[in-house]
Amino acid sequence: MSVRWQTIVALMLASLLAGCGGDTSKARFAENSALAKQLLPKARKAVQKTLDDHFGSPLDSVAWLKLPVNYGKAEGTVKTVDGQKLSVEFNAEASDLESLTSPELTRAGLLFTSGSNAGKQVLLAKFDSKNSTFETLPGLESAPSSGDQFVAAGHFLRHGRKLYARHCQHCHGVSGDGDGTTAKYLNPRPRDYRLGVFKFTSTASFPAPIKATRDDLKRVIALGIPGTYMPSFVPMLKENELTAVIEYVRWLAMRGEIEKGLVTELKGEYSKDRSKDDGIDKSLETYLSETYPNFVNEIAGEVGEKWSGAEEEGTPIIPKKPRPQDTAESRHRGKELFLGNKAKCVNCHGPTGRGNGPMTEDFQKNPDTNETYAERGLYDTWGQPIKPRDLTRGIYRGGRRPIDIYRRIYAGIKGTPMPGNSQALSEDEIWDLVNYALSVPYDSQAPKSPKPHSVAEHSMDHGHAN
Ligand code: HEC
Ligand code: HEC
Question: Which tens digit of pLDDT belongs to each residue from 278-287?
Fold first, then answer.
């Protein structure tokens, strides 16, 4: 079951956005063309159609209820009907009653689940939260009656979209591809959400990487990422606004992952280079009508499960032992590990932690394709060159609390070459490394006079220190 908002919604949102660098010209999600162009044109079209059907466009979004996204869903019963005015009563368990005062509910979709309009939906013209009355736009064949049940869905996601368009899109792009208008000037680049990979999570990466939790995303958005252009959004965004924009980011990530999953599946048989094969059109047609719809559901199920998995209780990494005292002995043990063969930190971070270890000088292999990169040094999952952190500077992108550093060392930094150590190291050892890593900025300052920073570096240092 999906709920779609129609053109009228698009028009209204477009006019609201016009004043803030509006995105009316880009009212479509961009195709992940690097992937899609590998497909036969008809297969490529099928993927686009699936995405349009199940996600819609930025200004006309679809709530695909199979995905674990809080679209905003309020269930209730019609009490009285007066033309297009419905006075209603919400069920107590409506998922986010407090946001029902939000103007977002105006022009959301209302789907009847019982009565003569069961399965039909109508758009809301107005919502009066004080009196719990909806005014609907015309569109129903028969008038609803008292006792009819309904679901109003989508207002929360739409609230998120508006905030995203205003605050995030110029960096992260309309479709979350990290390619917004200001992105090209930034290093590191804004995150491309479409791989569904997030770096600074509280979750494990072994045996399989677990997604970011809502709390992880909230932390990053609230505090920003120190030492990068990712700004902090508190106090600018209020609690419920943060929650709404997080849902939108998750939704974009799921969309990107499903797109990738579909292309990968179709590429097996229906890649571009098979265009001249006999009977390929016929075979594709059969596949699309017989097998593909199930595959679409399957992949959405898989992606959804991964995201709901991150929300399960007990997912965040919490060491059984608290941080031991930060003694000279603990730091010393940490340093030995840092330099030694068991943890191999030195290979990337270098003997003094400056981020210039031998791996930054060698040619590395792309783990996905097994091909050697053309330039020396490390690369991330998005194909960008990446440097190990210079630990002498004391800037921690994923947070500076000891537990943050613990999680970085335990699980690694997803999407980057920084590996996890949950198997190689004990809790005590990881804590010693935490104590050592946090001491590096002080110890490395003592003997030498600090190197003057360039202006740009200097301002980044102080940009978001939390
Ligand atoms: C000025 C550009 C800019 C703006 C505006 C911006 N971001 Fe970012 N964002 C970045 C950069 C750069 C990174 C990547 C930093 C890195 O890789 O260490 C990032 C990373 C992220 C991440 C990934 C965190 C992780 O753990 O991998 C999330 C989520 C995110 N931003 C959400 C948002 C949201 C939501 C907004 C709007 C409310 C927003 N950003 C606005 C530049 C920006
Ligand atoms: C294969 C290379 C590699 C190895 C080995 C490695 N790191 Fe890293 N490390 C990186 C990279 C790359 C980053 C920067 C990732 C990013 O934020 O985008 C990083 C970042 C960090 C950070 C900064 C975290 C933050 O929030 O900013 C710390 C602390 C760190 N590493 C500690 C360690 C320790 C301790 C070890 C050994 C247990 C280690 N690293 C091993 C590559 C490596």
Answer: 999 999 999 9
Look at residues 252, 284, 310 and tell me which one is the last residue of a structural domain.
Answer: 310
Give yes or no for residue 169 CB within 6 A of ligand 1: no
Residues 148 and 208 in one domain: no
Of 310, 341, 367, which residue sits at a domain end? 310
pLDDT value at 116 more than 60: yes
- 3-state SS, residue 262: helix
* Best residue for ligand 2 mutational test, from 199, 348, 390, 421 (most atoms within 8 Å of Cβ): 348
Q: Are 270 and 413 part of one and the same domain?
A: no
Signed CA dihedral, 349, 351, 354, 358: sign only: negative
pLDDT on residue 6 = 33
What is the CA(388)–ligand 2 centre distance, in A? Answer: 6
- Ligand 1 pocket member 245 (CB < 6 A): yes
Q: How far apart are CA 373 and CA 357, in angstroms?
A: 18
Are 52 and 201 members of one domain? yes
Is 361 a residue whose pLDDT tops 90? yes
Long-range contacts of 49-53 (CB under 8 A, 24+ apart): 50/258, 50/262, 50/296, 51/255, 51/258, 51/259, 53/2
Does 126 map to a domain? Answer: yes
190 and 47 within one domain: yes
Q: Tens of pLDDT along 186-199?
A: 999 999 999 999 99
CA angle 370–409–381, rounded 5-degree value: 30
What is the whole-number distance in angstroms between the Cα of residue 190 and the centre of ligand 1? 5
- Given this model, what pLDDT does residue 91 score? 82
Structural domain containing residue 97: 73-153
Predicted pLDDT at 107: 66
pTM: 0.87
Distance (angstroms) between ligand 2 centre and the Cα of 330 equals: 19
Q: Is 199 in the pocket of ligand 1 (CB under 6 A)?
A: yes
Residue 234 and residue 149 share a domain: no
User: Residues 419-462: pLDDT tens digits?
Assistant: 999 999 999 999 999 999 999 999 876 555 444 443 333 333 33
In the chain, the N- to C-terminal Cα span, in Å, equals: 44
Nearest CA to ligand 1 atom 21: 191
Statement to judge: residues 288 and 337 lie in one domain? no
Kindly state whether residue 320 falls inside one of the protein's structural domains.
no
The pLDDT assigned to 199 comes to 98
Can you give the pLDDT at residue 460?
A: 36
The number of domains in the chain is 3
Contact 195, 382 (CB under 8 A): yes
Return the bridge partners of 80, or none. 87
